[in-house]
Design a protein that fits this description.
This protein has 10 helices and 14 strands. It is α/β, with parallel strands linked by helices. α8 packs parallel to α10. The chain starts with a strand and ends with a helix. The relative contact order is 0.16. The structure holds pyridoxal-5'-phosphate. Pyridoxal-5'-phosphate binds next to α3.
Length: 362
C-alpha cells in the first residue's frame, strides 16, 4: 500500500512525475532507449536540460542576466562553491546562522575568506529567525541566508528577506527546502541554490541560479568543475550530468507550472495552517518554533510527555504515515509537507493526532 510520505528529503513526488519517470525508464522520448542509457549529448536529452534550465528561470520570472545550472554534489557542495567563486581572502561575507545547514555553509566559507555572523539563533536551539542584525562588518561581498530551516522548522518571511536584501549588494539564498513553495520575488537574490530532492525532483541534481555579474571578481584560480563560469559556458554539460535526476526535475517543474505558483502557495499555506492549528489546540503536542517564523514546509513539534512519543509514532505508522520522526539532532516530530503532499495527506495526519489525543488525554 502507498504510504503517506512526510520524509524531509528525498521526499514525496507528484504521481505524474513517478509515472513519467517510469515510462522514460522503459522508453525515453520515442528514442528506443531508456533514459538510463541514453547519451547526455543526444538531442532529446539536450532538450530536457535546456528545457529544465529555461523553466526554472520562467517560473522564477528572471531575465537573461541570470543563468541556471544543474550541478552535482548536492546543496552541500554549494557551501564551498559559493565562497570559492565569490569571496576573496581579504573580503568579508555575512552569514545568518538559522540552523544546521546555515551553520554548515558559514563554516565552509571560512576556508576562503572572512566570515561575519550577522545574527544567529543557535543559542536558543534555532527556534526563530533573528530580525536584529549586526551589520558592523560592512561592506559584505555577499550575505548568505538559508530561507527555510529544514531541520528545526523556521522559515524567513518575505518581508525580512526584503530588509536584508536592502543591506547588501549580493544576496545568496539556500532555498533547498522551500524553492517554488510560495510566491516570492526571486530577483531579490543574486544566487539561489537548492538540492532537487525536496521540492523539485529527486536526489542527484542541484540547481544553481546565478546572476552573471557577480562572477569573475575573485583573484584565485578555480578548478574547472568548481567554476560557475565554466558550467555556464558549457550549459551544464562540462561533464556527464545526472541525466535521470535532471529529467525527473524537468517533469517536476512542468507539474509546478501546471499547478501554478499562486495555487501551490495557497495550498501550502492552508496545509501548514491546519497542521499548526491542530498542534496548538492539542494538550499533548507543542510547537517549538516562534509562531511568526513557523515553516510552511517542515512542521516540527514535540510532546509534553516525551514517553508518549514512540507510541504516537507507532500509531501513525499503523495508519500508513511515514517519515515524521524529528531530525536526530532535535527529536520530537517533523512533518515535511512539500508541494507534492496533498491536503488530504495532512488531513490524515491531523485525524491520527486527534485520535491519539482522545485515547491518551485524561
Ligand atoms: C537538505 C538541505 C541541504 C543539504 O542538501 P544536500 O543536497 O544533501 O547536500 C542544505 N541546505 C538545506 C536548507 C537543506 O534542506
Amino acid at each position: 500500500m502507498k504510504k503517506i510520505n512526510f520524509y524531509s528529503g528525498p521526499s514525496i513526488l507528484p504521481q505524474e512525475v513517478l509515472d513519467g519517470t517510469k515510462a522514460a525508464i522503459d522508453e525515453f522520448a520515442d528514442t528506443g532507449l531508456s533514459i538510463l542509457e541514453i547519451s547526455h549529448r543526444a538531442k532529446p536529452f539536450v532538450e530536457v536540460m535546456d528545457g529544465a534550465r529555461a523553466l526554472v528561470k520562467e517560473l522564477m520570472g528572471l531575465g537573461d542576466e541570470y543563468e541556471v545550472l544543474y550541478l552535482h554534489g548536492g546543496a552541500s557542495s554549494q557551501f564551498y562553491m559559493i565562497p570559492y567563486n565569490l569571496l576573496d581572502t581579504n573580503e568579508t561575507a555575512g552569514y545568518i546562522d538559522t540552523g544546521t545547514w546555515a551553520h554548515g555553509a558559514l563554516t565552509e566559507a571560512k576556508l576562503f575568506g572572512k566570515v561575519h555572523v550577522i545574527a544567529s539563533s543557535k543559542d536558543t536551539n534555532y527556534d526563530h529567525i533573528p530580525k536584529q542584525w549586526d551589520l558592523s562588518a560592512k561592506p559584505y561581498k555577499y550575505i548568505h541566508i538559508t530561507t527555510n530551516n529544514t531541520i528545526y522548522g523556521a522559515q524567513w518571511d518575505v518581508e525580512s528577506i526584503r530588509k536584508i536584501r536592502a543591506q547588501c549588494d549580493v544576496l545568496v539564498g539556500d532555498m533547498s527546502s522551500d524553492i517554488f513553495s510560495r510566491e516570492i520575488d526571486y530577483s531579490m537574490f543574486d544566487v539561489i541554490y537548492a538540492g532537487a530532492q525536496k521540492n523539485m525532483g529527486v536526489a542527484g541534481a542541484t540547481v544553481v541560479v546565478i546572476k552573471k555579474s557577480v562572477l569573475g571578481t575573485v583573484k584565485r584560480d578555480i578548478p574547472k568543475m568548481l567554476d560557475y563560469r565554466v558550467h555556464i559556458e558549457t550549459e551544464s554539460m562540462k561533464n556527464t550530468p545526472s541525466v535521470f535526476a535532471v529529467y525527473a526535475s524537468y517533469l517536476t517543474l512542468q507539474w509546478i507550472k501546471k499547478q501554478g505558483l499562486q495555487n501551490i502557495s495557497s495550498v501550502n499555506q492552508r496545509k501548514a495552517d491546519k497542521l499548526y492549528k491542530a498542534i496548538d489546540e492539542s494538550n499533548l503536542f507543542v510547537g517549538n518554533i516562534a509562531k511568526e517564523d513557523r515553516s510552511m514546509m517542515n512542521v516540527c513539534w514535540v510532546m509534553k510527555d516525551k514517553s508518549l512519543e514512540p507510541k504516537f509514532n507507532e500509531m501513525a505508522k499503523s495508519k500508513g504515515i511515514v517519515g515524521i520522526e524529528g531530525h536526530r539532532s532535535v527529536g520530537g516530530f517533523r512533518a515535511s509537507i512539500y508541494n507534492a503532499m496533498p491536503e488530504s495527506g495532512v488531513d490524515v495526519l491531523i485525524r491520527v493526532m486527534k485520535e491519539f489525543e482522545s485515547s491518551y488525554a485524561q
